[in-house]
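Please study the protein below:
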Amino acid sequence: MFLKTKISSVFGTAILAAGVLLGAQAQAADFNLRAVANSNENDEDYDGLVVFKDFVESHSNGRINVDLYIGTQLCGNGVECLEALEYGSVDIYISTSGGASAMYPYVQVLDLPYLLRDDRVAETVLEGDFTRELRKQILADSGDTVRLMTIGNTGGWRNFANTKRTVKTPGDLDGLKIRTVVSDLPQELVRSLGASPTPIPWPELFTSFQTGVVEGSKNGITDIMGMKFTEAGLKHVTLDGHAYMSALWYMSNESFMDMPEDLRKVVVDGFSALQQATFASPKRKSIQAYQDFAKAGGELYVPTPEQKADFKKSAEPVYDWFKGNIKDGEKWFDLLAKSAAEAEKEIEQAYAADLN
């Protein structure tokens, strides 16, 4: 009898606690944010959104609710999703620079090759005033509707990969058919290095490697292994690190400004946490991806500093193209180059303090 009474008491307490929890959850948040990433749950974008959602909901004590829409439920591509931000049917969206270039062409500055030396330089630049300047421009060009919140990473670094041979110098790319997106800047880069740019939709790339329609690509190692391109013959990767795979995170400016200042601060801090998560995620995932690449018979080549300088020299026509074909291109090129130089100087000063 005592046991029955005790168990009943425990169940009663549990049911009461569950009722209180459900009641708390049922209370509507003051602000509901719809966040979209046109990717999947294995992607760095999803990792960042999970961190953002947890941070914002907990630090706002439930006053902000974040719903995640992973895939194409609410919008299907960069232009469509950015327009959804403008119209207010989406509150948060992430795109690559290529995905936003049709509306904001100058964001392609982030795709210019060899301007960002390494992760530490890239992260220092993207945490600073360069991102704030881009924010001002996008706000102005969108009529104060689209607010760039932060820039993270999605996939690490773009490197040249191919099915034919080891690439050590720009000359080794000569004549190779390299897959690009339908965008001028990456095609100009491939041409400047002596290869032939061949736009191919992403879902068709595996078969295109198999059939020889293309012989190479510009991808991060996690994308290569995630799509099992080694099984289609992609066995040579040169770690030239020509482009940092930036992820631009936007928010409806109206949704942001409708919040009181204390909650806007929570959202800003949440995007900072998201940024750090997306900086870290590709580094972790690439470890296994490189191991899997080697097991699949893949060959990695790391250019010497002199060879890396040759790649950058060969790519200089892309800088001229950007300055001449993109409105205010010279301004954005100079700003990114200056920000990178300042970051490198700051890091060298840190070395001087930390190595002695």
